[in-house]
Write a structure and sequence with these properties.
mainly alpha, MetI-like fold
Length: 294
Amino acid sequence: MTTQDVTAKNAPRATADPDRAQASTPPDTRAVKTVRRLPVQKDWPLWLIVTVQIGILLAAIALWQWGADHGWIDGFFWSKPSAVYATLIKFFAGGQAWTDIGYTFRSTIFGFFLGTASGSLIGLSFWWSRNYAAIAQPYLICFHSLPKLALAPLVILIFGIGLASKVAIATALTIIVSALTTYAGVKTLDPDQERLFYSLGASRMQVFRKLVVPFCLPWIISVLRVNIGLALTGAIVGEFIAAQHGLGRAILYAGNTYDIALVWVASLVLSTLAVAMYGAVSWVERVLRKGMKQ
């Protein structure tokens, strides 16, 4: 084969390559990309938010009163704000209101502290033995899934109709939540930290006190706001079954006598008590978290 044949054979490829390279070259015009920015939301001042909230509440009350006066709402079954206000004055003037509030408050607080403390200790105790934790955990889950309302009559028969039965039901609602939450914190403990403590000569009790308990404190604190609501629910359930005092007893009595205005009054006082206790527990939680960071 001569040199001219080789040149002629490669000539078409040589002439095609520049065209192919030119075809694959991207155009000079560049696509303009639009840059998306995060939407800017301006937070309203606190006074404006509170004003809107109060305005919505007043508008709802006014609409309720207007509907009851003009027959749009059945005043017997729904009552009306004017009747609720008059009943509220009588409820506090009679002196029974503070007795019921104090009774519900005591049973809620006692159940809250007993359930949170006992449940946290149970959850922390699972660290000592994985076999013990594996045996006890199914029973805790089974008890947690059981409706506590079904056990309320039995609790009333055992502890009576006094304060102890309400505290027992409130404790039953909070203890399992605290135990399972604390145990979740125990399971996330880093084993390398435990080995480090043991390598430095720490005993098992020292590891528990100086590593496990401080590590699980955020988990214990995180369940406080949940438990205060559960404890209040347990106290009200106990008062529904049998009680001498309490806001739950007042609501049940008003419902049985068709005093709808008293039902609204007792529910309003109960919701106010719940918000106050929730706010107090939230403040305690913030203080504890701030102390842990320091």
